[in-house]
Amino acid sequence: MNAEKLAYFFEAGELLTVFAEWPNEIGLVLCLDDAGTCEMVLHHLDEGRSVLRKAAALLDCGKGGFAVVPPVEGYPTRRVLFSDEQKLLKLVAGEDDLPEMAEDYLINYRFEQERKARSAPAPAPVTDPLAEKVSAALRGPEPFRWRPRLHLAELAPRPVARRKPKPEMPEGYLPAEVVSGSECQFVEAEVSLGHRGVRVTLCPGLVTIQTRAVLVEEVGFRDDFSRFVLPRKAVQGWVAGAPLVIDIPESRFPAALRQRFAASPRVAEVTVTGHGVFVAPGPATQSAEPTVPAAAVPAVAAKPRRARRVFSPLRVALAVLTGAGLMTGTMMRAVEMPASFETSVFEMAFDN
Question: What top-level branch of life does the organism fall under (predicted)?
């Protein structure tokens, strides 16, 4: 069988979908050959298999040398895509004079059948032009030939365009020409664990009591759990440089990550793209001060403590007298005392 040759039958009901006036007794056959030429053959439903002989003559091949759609017993067939059926029907709809030709064919067919029924002898050959026209009408119209400028998908498949070889990139990486112009923003952030779950804080230094907080349920993890990703909607309405708080339920994280975030908040780098919000936790935000061994601390010589001065009762009395003298505006010298007593008192005070 020549797979490039096909006889495609349209029934009257199908043709009525494109032509409002189409005779119910007339069908249409499209004969497509391997050169891309298509010939239309009108036929009456009562003609039976004689139409297949006409198609074989037009396609220049015998029985079995072409496919028939829809299938007919004794002939090979093939599957035709629905899109190709629509293409053929569209081509038929473009021939505006087809309904008129179908009406003429029906009139001629009925006339010929009536003539055979009367068993009238065949008319003698004449050369009269009018008689020639009558004889041609009895023979039926000649096949309408035209090149439809289409090929069915299975008859003549389109050549597959060669794709440019993809550059060898590791999984998860894209070539520069693919990501050129894509959205990409880097944000400083902090990851911690609180009463609402795991919290990702964008621009933590700018957070105030009025900072917006959102709750996100969806989260995905890289295979080594070194980073996780949130859906793009998590930052909907957010602008670069503004603070934002994103809370994720604690149950969505593995136990090891929860313990890590509970021990101390972590510095994080957040990358916002059109595909999502990628979070890469880093080191702890507050690192403990290193403990220095006692042996490493040099010994410092202790300063000798200064002896605490203890006032004797005599010194206390002298201080009281001095304060009283200052309060009364007088000096101790105004009191008449022997010089020896005065000298001895001061000596005793300083000696003690």
Answer: Bacteria
Q: Per the omega criterion (within 30 degrees of 0), is the bond before 70 cis?
A: yes
CA distance linking residue 180 with residue 30, whole number of Å: 50
* Residue from 175, 221, 215, 179 nearest 198 by CA: 215
Residue for token pair 């009456």: 44
296 burial (CB, 10 Å; 0-12 / 13-18 / 19+) is: exposed
What is the structure's pLDDT at 221? 92
Compute the distance between CA of residue 17 and CA of residue 86 in angstroms, rounded to an integer.
Answer: 12
Q: Residue 248: what residue type?
A: I
pLDDT at 122: 54
Measured CA to CA, the distance from residue 172 to residue 315 in angstroms comes to 90
Phi/psi at 288 (5° precision): -70, 150
- Name residue 246's beta-bridge partners: 200, 214
- In 195-336 the beta strands, taken as DSSP E runs, fall at 197-202, 213-215, 220-221, 228-230, 244-248, 266-273, 277-284
Between vectors from CA 205 to CA 203 and to CA 206, what angle results, nearest 5°? 75
**CA–CA gap between residue 170 and residue 168 (Å, rounded):** 7
Residue numbers in the chain where pLDDT is lower than 50: 1-2, 134, 137-138, 144-147, 149-161, 288-311, 314, 316, 324, 326-346, 349-350, 352
Query: Using an 8 Å Cβ cutoff, are 196 and 207 in contact?
Result: no
Q: Where are the domains of the chain?
A: 6-116, 182-284
**Which tokens in the block code for residue 278?**
């990628």
User: Within 13 A of 273's CA, how many CA atoms are on the CB side?
Assistant: 10
Q: What is the DSSP letter of 70?
A: S
Predicted confidence at residue 218, as pLDDT, reads 93
Q: Give exposure, 163-175, as e/b (b: 16+ Cβ within 10 Å).
A: eeeeeeeeeeeee
